[in-house]
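Journal club prep — side note

Before the paper discussion, L.F. wants everyone to see what a predicted structure for a comparable chain looks like in token form. Sequence:
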Amino acid sequence: MEKRVYTPEFRGEAVKIVLGSGKAVAAVARDIGVHEGTLMNWVNKYRREHPGTEQPLNMSERAELKQLRDETRELRMERDFLKKAAAFNA
């Protein structure tokens, strides 16, 4: 498989989409056809080079983030249980 090379402009626009849209890195990566890990590296590099440029979360965003994290944890536990049950029944 050939390694793809992305221009600095493409990388910059991809980072802007992630930071400006509120979409998850995985969703943006799928939309633009880039591996999720690659896009996350670009976003992390931008954040290291531009500290303090992002707005902090407000109270409602913090509450939503906590709720989503709790829901994610619960869904992962359910998924793991169902995987074990399916393996046991197979």
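L.F.'s comment for the group: The domain at 1-55 is CATH 1.10.10.10 (Arc Repressor Mutant, subunit A). Keep this in mind when we get to the figures.
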